[in-house]
Design goal:
This protein is an alpha/beta fold. The chain has helices at 26-32, 51-59, 72-84, 131-137, 144-154, 170-177, 229-235, and strands spanning 2-7, 12-17, 40-45, 63-69, 91-95, 110-115, 155-166, 181-192, 199-206, 213-214, 218-221, 240-243, 246-249. The protein has a single domain (2-249), classed as 3-Layer(aba) Sandwich (Rossmann fold). 25% of the residues lie in helices and 33% in strands. Helix 1 runs parallel beside helix 2 and helix 5 packs across helix 6 (170-177).
């Protein structure tokens, strides 16, 4: 059974399973982190029902997006969402395992690669009763290093890589990028002002050696529990913009 939801303030029609894993704000924020200057082809690894894929394609009409999803049922839902948003000309959903991408794909063929990998290492995860939710949230044979490896393989030299992940896995993510990507930007997502970040967006450029930047980040909720003005604007379609020490909107 599917529900019919909406993203980007109603600009994106989004069908997703009623049970199991349901897309939250993380893929929307990930898509918002890609700058308007990106052109060409963007790959979304682990696209699921297509939340990040659709948001990115809707925000940036000048790009082509390829959503890569291992689960056949989820890939079919993503294709339905592509059609529902009339994006067939620019968005393709490919059913493939990131550890065994189609041999016909040339390496280093994408101008940007985004991913929302499973957050939990299997030994640390509690039992998840729903198979789809487990696949989306708990690492299986493909650990974080495998996700980073796939992204680097697909990306052109100096292409943009972007990941959203748990803040307590930041050291693991940076270790996977060390020596292979630079110009790294760490963008914290704070639940509320003064609280520790639970999520981070990490961007990097393949093959570059520019030093790391810690950006100002984004506070998601105000004291009343509602989204802050800045977070609400991003969730409705604005892009994220950062510079050292400050987070704002494009």
């Amino acid at each position: 059974m599917l529900t019919r939801d909406a993203l980007l303030g109603g600009r994106v029609v989004f069908h997703q399973p009623a049970q199991g894993y349901r897309a939250a704000i993380d893929p929307v924020l990930l898509a918002a982190s890609i700058p308007e200057t990106i052109r060409g082809r963007v790959a979304d690894l682990g696209a699921g029902a297509g939340a990040a894929t659709l948001c990115l394609a809707m925000r940036l009409p000048g790009i082509e997006v390829v959503g890569i999803e291992r689960d056949g049922a989820m890939a079919d839902i993503a294709r339905r969402n592509v059609a529902a948003n009339a994006l067939e000309g620019r968005v393709t959903i490919v059913e493939a395992d990131l550890r065994a991408l189609p041999a016909s794909w040339a390496a280093e063929s994408f101008d940007a690669v985004i991913a929302n990998p499973p957050y939990l290492e299997a030994p640390r995860a509690n039992a998840v009763p729903h198979r789809g939710k487990e696949a989306a949230t708990v690492e299986s044979e493909a650990d974080l290093a495998a996700w980073i490896e796939a992204a680097l393989r697909l990306a052109k030299p100096k292409a943009l890589l972007a990941f959203v992940h748990r803040a307590d896995r930041l050291a693991d993510l940076l270790a996977c990028l060390r020596g292979r990507a630079g110009a790294i930007v760490v963008f914290p997502l704070w639940p509320r002002q003064g609280e520790a970040a639970k999520r981070v967006i990490v961007q990097a450029r393949k093959g570059m050696r520019t030093p790391l930047t810690l950006a100002g980040g984004l506070v998601l909720h105000g004291p009343d529990g509602r989204y802050t003005e800045a977070a609400d604007a991003v969730l409705r379609g604005a892009g994220l913009h950062w510079q050292a020490g400050a987070g704002s909107l494009r």
